Amino acid sequence: MSLSAASLPPVEPGLFATNPPALVGGRCASCDALRFPYRGVCPQCQRADVAPTALSTSGRVYTFTIVRGSPPGYCGDIPYAFGVIELPEGLRVIATIVARDLASIAIDDAVDFELIAVGTGDDARQSYAFRRREPA
Amino acid sequence: MSDIVVRGVGMHPFGRFEGKSAVEMACDALREALIDADAAWRDIDALYCAHMYAGTGAGHRIASVLGATGIPIVNVENACSSGSTAIVMARQALLAHEYENVAVVGLEKMPRGFMDMDYFEPWRQRVGHAVNPAQFAFAIRRHMHEHGTTERQLALVAEKNHAHSVHNDRAMYRTPISCDAVLASRMIVDPLRLLMLCTPNEGAAAAILTRRKAGHGEARLIGQGLKTAMRGQAIGEHMPTDSPIEPAVDSVTRRAAMQAYDAAGIGPDDLDVAELQDTDSGTELIGTEEIGLCGVGEGGALVESGATRLGGRIPVNPSGGLLSKGEPVGASGLGQVFEIVNQLRGRCGPRQVEGARIGLTQTLGAGGNGCVLIFARS
Predict the structure, then answer these.
(1) Is A3-17+56-132 a CATH 2.40.50 domain?
(2) Taking the complete model, does pTM exceed 0.95, yes or no?
(3) Got the DSSP string for A22-70?
(4) Which residue of B has its CA nearest to A74?
(5) Taking the domains of chain B in order of start, what are their residue ranges?
(6) Would you call A97 an interface residue with chain B, using a CB distance cutoff of 8 Å?
(7) Which residues of B touch A76 (CB under 8 A)?
(8) Closest CA to A53 of A83, A84, A89
(9) Using one digit for the tens of pLDDT, what is the confidence trace for A58-94?
(10) What are the residue boundaries of the structural domains of chain A, listed by start?
(11) Do B141 and A65 touch (CB under 8 A)?
(12) Which CATH code fits B3-109?
């Protein structure tokens, strides 16, 4: 986690845990279905017995894009990357992707979870990303 | 058996019209459709009005301009599929013998640039995940990875549609654009460049539908499919927040197309012309596969072969598509219907597909909703 991200308020409560850092999904106690973000209802059996669960902190890039302009409501830097990350427990999630060089990001890249800061000053919030694992 | 006949169609050009409201444009489109149908406003039993941004009671405001006749008016919002969804609803009401003549209109007046979509929760906007064209980029990036689709093939989709638009005086952009110019335009959401993306804009289009036996040469609606994405669909205009990795499911467009083909009793080989949702080059390329014009992964080769160009085996977007017309979201589906109905009636001049008898329209919108309509000339 970057130093600046640690002390910031989360962009939305309940999306991720900070200690240790991980996304918080929901697992249905009845049918075991998994989702992110957490919701009180299961998308598979519609029962309301869903427990928050920490998701894997490593995954792979399924697809991604690099955004070159600033979309409405966005308060971070451009360009930035985000995409669909596949987690080993069988779930795909949308996440920001960080890398030393955005141009190096490719499908199937291994990525690791981290907390990031988005925005500056009063607009700054703690958010989440997966960082491209640089080849050794 | 009675048919669902498209008695008439009308279209206000798509573009930028300062000082003209969406309702005014819709009235123009409706008046043209009424004249085309040889019908009067007082003959209309119900109005379905499709839009995303036109505000409260847009259809009611249209009726107050054209003249309040006391008919039922339903405003329909289904993102980019709003217009085609309104056609589906009008058909159902006609088949239920609720009405004899129904007017369907789509209208929109949108700001420039990235669409500001309240579909997304505020935190997604804040962290930059609420980017409409990023969904298209996700889909085509994966397609390139799995099937070797090239940037040049993406550029060819735009080049083709702009070549078609030269013959369409209702399109916003009507100049040919070379493949090299598309590839030289600025990157917006990798791998999609500026000239591979349609522009949100303004416009309106309308159709008058009736239930009776179709006369010779008339266009009738013979198949329709309206679906939403299933949870297992990882990407597409689905705005996914998450999806389980297994089992794989057919995309919303593929499922809507299958439903429409089943209803029409035809298959993709029977089509003569199609108007597909080219919000971007990638969506059209993948769309040609999803509606069955070629196999999975063959969309790049299909556009390269010239098959989807005017004069080819199955011209796609002879109107110039959304890449040339722009996309006023509530109106775009009816803009496709305007084109296909006119193609089937042989009224498209230099962009006419010779002898077109069966045509298809396809829309795809936020929330992962897809609609496919099939029309035939009697």
Answers:
(1) yes
(2) yes
(3) EEEEEEETTT--EESS--SS-TTT--S-EEEEEPPSEEEEEEEEEE-S-
(4) B126
(5) 3-109
(6) no
(7) 127-128
(8) A89
(9) 999 999 999 999 888 898 999 999 999 999 999 999 9
(10) 3-17+56-132
(11) yes
(12) 3.40.47.10
